[in-house]
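STRUCTURE:
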């Protein structure tokens, strides 16, 4: 499910905050609001934290800075947490609902909500974050698309005694080991596809030209259902520019690859994969709809999964919606994704928290109803 972000009314500009109390001998912890317009000026510190933190490729500076161009609503920024001047936390998001809610930043092209936190500093970052929100009189923290792991465990421990409402929980397809061998039907489809010409696969990971692969992916996506719906990345200069800048920036650091399946040299399926640390994200896929009966997208997705896991990845996230008919057939792992609304203050949260909760539930229910009506 895509994250819902609500623009602040009016826009919030937060000053630096006072130092928080740190554990004895651990150094002074400070927190500061950093507007998204100022993110480029701290790229070196940000990159150093990204390389030390638990991986979230969507918060790599190369990708996140490019993504600002497709998220122009006002108020985007981040709570930056430092210990003795060194960055230990970066939590991007927006304050909305007239100052009542902070939403951690996810968007249609970044379906993962883990912040950047230096290992071992989870409690300090959470304490500083909640202090910032409390001082701003924010009532609720909306945290979408968090999986299970050290940060989620630290969040649960820190929020003991606070009201937590689970707005969404679903399982997302993933791989934690090599996918099962292709089924008999899938092998048959590959043979039938090969009857139409020479079938091969190429990848930027093994030297195929990046620009050529990017153009092939964008053209395949635009020629399919996303192009007809108006959601293809090549559909606007802004989204195309974001894709090219963000993915090429990651690729230059060995963190992105584009794989193609070709028939007589013509691309018929493409997949874009991102990686950070020991994790990967199967970000986008596209295929030739005129060959859909042979499932080229499925065949390529299976091959990409095999290649990722053979390359030392411990978890490959499909980035897919729950119940995805293609990926769930070939990527059998499941990772739990949860969206929580958390009261900023412990104890009884007060009416503003419940007002935010009612508004968020109404918004989510309304979107679900709209999707059902559009499918009729």
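SEQUENCE:
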């Amino acid at each position: 499910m895509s994250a819902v972000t609500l623009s602040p009314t009016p826009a919030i500009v937060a000053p630096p905050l006072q130092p928080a109390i740190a554990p004895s001998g651990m150094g002074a912890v400070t927190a500061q609001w950093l507007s998204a317009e100022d993110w480029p000026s701290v790229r070196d510190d940000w990159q150093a934290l990204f390389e030390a933190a638990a991986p979230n490729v969507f918060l790599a500076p190369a990708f996140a800075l490019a993504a600002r161009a497709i998220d122009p609503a006002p108020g985007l920024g981040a709570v930056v947490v430092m210990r003795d001047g060194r960055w230990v936390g970066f939590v991007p998001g927006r304050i909305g609902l007239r100052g009542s809610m902070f939403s951690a930043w996810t968007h249609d092209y970044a379906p993962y909500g883990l912040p950047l936190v230096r290992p071992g500093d989870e409690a300090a970052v959470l304490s500083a974050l909640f202090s910032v929100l409390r001082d701003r009189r924010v009532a609720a923290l909306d945290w979408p698309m968090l999986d299970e792991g050290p940060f989620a465990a630290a969040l649960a421990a820190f929020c003991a005694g606070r009201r937590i409402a689970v707005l969404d929980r679903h399982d997302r397809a993933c791989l934690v080991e090599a996918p099962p061998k292709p089924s008999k039907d899938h092998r048959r489809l590959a043979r039938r596809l090969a009857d139409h010409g020479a079938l091969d696969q190429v990848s930027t990971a093994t030297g195929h030209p990046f620009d050529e692969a990017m153009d092939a992916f964008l053209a395949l996506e635009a020629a399919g259902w996303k192009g007809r719906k108006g959601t293809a990345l090549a559909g606007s200069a802004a989204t195309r520019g974001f894709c090219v800048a963000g993915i090429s920036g990651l690729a230059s650091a060995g963190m992105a690859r584009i794989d193609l399946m070709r028939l007589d040299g013509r691309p018929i399926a493409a997949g874009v994969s991102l990686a950070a640390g020991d994790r990967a994200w199967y970000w986008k896929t596209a295929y030739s709809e005129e060959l859909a009966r042979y499932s080229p997208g499925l065949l390529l997705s299976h091959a990409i999964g095999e290649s990722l896991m053979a390359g030392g990845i411990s978890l490959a996230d499909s980035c897919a919606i729950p119940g995805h008919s293609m990926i769930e057939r070939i990527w059998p792992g499941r990772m739990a994704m949860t969206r929580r609304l958390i009261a900023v203050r412990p104890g009884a949260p007060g009416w503003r928290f419940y007002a935010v909760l009612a508004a968020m539930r109404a918004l989510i229910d309304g979107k679900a109803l709209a999707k059902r009506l559009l499918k009729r």
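REMARK: The longest helix spans residues 351-375.
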